[in-house]
From TrEMBL:
The keyword Zinc applies. This is B box-type domain-containing protein. GO terms for cellular component: nucleoplasm. Residues 17-62, 74-116 form the B box-type domain. GO terms for molecular function: ubiquitin protein ligase activity; zinc ion binding. The keyword Zinc-finger applies. It comes from Mytilus coruscus. Keywords: Metal-binding, Zinc, Zinc-finger. Signal peptide: none annotated.
Length: 345
């Protein structure tokens, strides 16, 4: 049927040359350029192959293009080993469909085969199609549940992100309030310390002014005594002033320990400094929990390809391949050992 469909399509359909059609001419195409995506007649094809930019383009005959088009529409009809050939028979030993070329190959030359079109009595209502249909539906249902869970988890991630963003914003606001409180306290401490340091300096200044004022008064007294003072007044002043001057000089000797330049600098706590220099404030912690999946029964079974009888072929034609071995009961390891070997039976 598939072969007849290809033959009918090949005979019924022709394609006009795209180049000629653009010039108002009507010529039948003989090939298809897969690079330019154009149908070309014989003269246009020759010119196309002579041009430098298209000399390496490959052409597909129109007959092959029909097969190519049909394969894209119904790829299941074509042989997996020879993609251009339609399947025509079923190999009972290897349990898969083959084409005429496969049958001539050494792999299937001696295999028993069934004609798909004449020997198939009920593939559409067979055990294989019903079993496969049930398995597909069970798998689809399971995949659907898993997809529902994945989409739910995907939406949950978006909501979790919103929560995290809110938490970050709250953290930032709390940080701002805390920093404002700390800055206010820091400025208050600066004012208190500044008042203390200024008081210390002002006390020294007042003390120095007072002592210098006393010295100035004594200098004036000396000038006056030298002009009009009596010996008794001068001796008495010298004795009193000498004691006062001795105290001044002792005070001067002690000043290097008490007179110091005061310089103020800001000192930030190391913990806060590390926060300012931190490359990251935080991150996302992922927690993974297992999801309970209801896997269909027999999902893990070892699946040997369906037998000819299970595929709906005439039961009278489906006797065991070997007298003492039925393909339905072949163990998987035995099947794997001979399924790819040439058949000589």
């Amino acid at each position: 049927m598939a072969g007849n469909q290809m033959a009918a399509t090949r005979m019924a359909t022709t394609f006009p040359c795209n180049n000629c059609a653009g010039q108002g001419k009507n010529k039948i195409a003989v090939g298809w350029c897969d690079k330019c995506m154009k149908f070309l007649c014989t003269p246009c094809k020759k010119r196309h192959q002579k041009l430098k930019f298209s000399s390496n383009h490959s052409f597909m005959p129109v007959e092959d293009y029909h097969i190519f088009s049909l394969r894209k529409e119904r790829p299941i009809m074509f042989c997996r080993t020879h993609p251009s050939k339609v399947i025509s028979m079923y190999c009972r030993f290897h349990n898969h469909t083959i084409c005429d070329l496969c049958k001539k190959d050494i792999t299937h030359f001696n295999c028993k085969t069934l004609d798909i079109n004449s020997d198939g009595t009920g593939a559409r209502n067979s055990f294989a199609i019903n079993d496969l249909n049930q398995r597909l539906r069970e798998s689809s249902l399971t995949f659907g549940k898993i997809l529902k869970n994945r989409n739910k988890n995907l939406k949950a991630l978006d909501k979790q992100k919103e929560v995290i963003v809110t938490q970050v914003q709250t953290f930032r606001e709390n940080m701002r309030k805390s920093i404002e409180i700390l800055i206010k306290k820091l400025l208050e401490d600066v004012d208190i310390d500044m008042t203390d340091y200024k008081t210390r300096l002002q006390t020294q200044i007042d003390d120095l002014k007072e002592k210098r004022k006393a010295i100035a008064s004594h200098l004036e007294m000396i000038e006056e005594l030298q002009l009009v003072g009596s010996n008794a007044e001068t001796v008495n002043f010298i004795q009193d002033c000498a004691h006062i001057q001795t105290r001044h000089e002792r005070y001067l000797l002690s000043l290097p320990e008490s007179v110091k330049d005061l310089k103020l600098d800001l000192s930030i706590k190391e913990s806060f400094q590390k926060l300012l220099n931190a490359e990251k404030l935080g991150g996302i912690r992922l927690t993974e929990t297992e999801v309970e999946i209801d896997v269909p029964k027999n999902t893990d079974r070892t699946q040997i390809p369906y037998s000819a009888h299970q595929l709906g072929f005439d039961p009278h034609l489906c006797s065991p391949v070997h007298v003492d071995m039925d393909i339905l009961t072949v163990r998987e390891n035995e099947y794997n050992n001979y399924k790819t070997e040439p058949c000589h039976r």
